[in-house]
Design brief:
The chain has eight helices and four strands. By secondary structure, the chain is an alpha+beta fold.
Amino acid sequence: MTAKLYCFGESGNAYKAALTMTLSGFDWEPVYVDFFNGETRRPEFRALNEMGECPVLDLEGEILAQSGVMQLRIAEQTGRFGGENRDEVLRWLFWDNHKGSSQFGALRFMMHFLPAEKRPHAAIDWLSGRVQAALQTLETHLSKSDWLVGGSASIADFACCAYLYYPEGFGYSAQTHPAIARWLDRISALPGWAHPYDMMPGSPADRL
């Protein structure tokens, strides 16, 4: 079975699913979604996912939405990267959804993907403070542990790291967050790791 991941390279949420499948040895292929030209708002895509969001995972007709659901399914199906403590894994997945990627992705989008004249500077300033608080939570935890849960990599790591590999800055710096930087290096050293722009189709350069 070859799973189909509806995705685009700029999406950190899609990268969570793509990275989990790749590192787990799960057979998958990307299906490019033209997000920046409104594909997720079209009826054909809404028929696939009523939430109008990427990623979407097609497992031979079984459709999964939300990256955390996909990560949990892949971990359970492959027996890899499920973590040593399910409750702790879920705690970090939920934290990432609320305090991590949801804020990282929104700030990055406003700072880099909106036209300069449409960028909401007051919102960017406010959200930047929230992002720094979230990054400090990660930095503090990772200064005491190599991985988010237990002694090895898990889907919690793959969820929380996703937006931090992108070159479009939104507040993360290896100089000011050295524990996070070392953690990202540990993840990128895992066999099969690749950058999101290499793992999925679509990048800002493609739209120039």
